[in-house]
Each structure stands twice: as structure tokens, then as C-alpha cells.
Specification:
The chain is mostly helical. The chain has 4 helices and 2 strands. A hairpin with a 4-residue loop joins β1 (58-61) and β2 (66-69). InterPro entries: YpoC. It comes from Sporosarcina soli. This is YpoC family protein.
């Protein structure tokens, strides 16, 4: 069982999602053009995603017996490892886009708890 989550302020996380939305189409275009700038932008987006997870805090997952990021999507650790390992693949972009989308939904869900 995961220890109780506290409500969060989604406004704290909006800049991360806005930045991703602002660059995602450019990254995808660079991938289709096989432009190396895609890798640079992906690297920045990965760092921002890591920062987003850290900013959301951690909670104890008693089933796993370890601390996990509060905002981490399902299988997020493994999926982010794939993105980092396969950054030159367009599939890494697709996976990172999915991680941002799922995390944004989780932030929205957890922010409702405070109302």
C-alpha cells in the first residue's frame, strides 16, 4: 500500500507542462528530419521531467518497500530509463510525450484532493 498522498498545487507544475507543449512539435519535426538538435532538446526535456518529479516529492510504496516519486506515472522509472537509453530513437520521444501527458493528468487528479 502506498502511504497517503497530500494534495498538491497544480500551478507549481504548469511551467513544466507548458514548456513541453511549446517544444514537443519541434522535437518531433527534428526527429523526422534526423536532425541532431532533437537529441539536445530531448536532453533538456528529460532534465525538466526529472526536476518535475523531484519537485512533486516522494512517498513510501510499502508494496515495493521503497520511496517513489509522488507524480511518477505507472512504470515511470522503467519508461524513463528507456527514454534515456534510447534517446536517439523516435520511440523515446513518443514515450517521453506519454510520460508528460500521464504526469499532467496525475497532477490534475492530485490537485483536486485539496478542494
Amino acid at each position: 500500500m502506498i502511504s497517503e498522498m497530500k494534495p498538491i498545487d497544480k500551478e507549481l507544475f504548469s511551467p513544466y507542462f507548458e514548456k513541453w507543449e511549446a517544444i514537443r512539435e519541434t522535437i518531433e519535426l527534428f526527429y523526422t528530419q534526423k536532425d541532431r538538435q532533437a537529441l539536445e532538446m530531448m536532453g533538456e526535456a528529460i532534465l525538466a521531467f526529472d526536476e518535475l518529479l523531484e519537485r512533486g516529492g516522494k512517498m513510501l510504496d510499502e508494496r515495493k518497500g521503497k520511496w517513489v516519486y509522488t507524480l511518477e506515472p505507472l512504470n515511470g522509472e522503467e519508461r524513463l530509463a528507456f527514454v534515456k537509453a534510447k534517446i536517439s530513437s523516435h520511440y523515446a520521444f513518443v514515450q517521453l510525450d506519454a510520460l508528460y501527458t500521464e504526469t499532467k493528468k496525475k497532477v490534475a487528479r492530485l490537485s483536486i484532493m485539496k478542494n
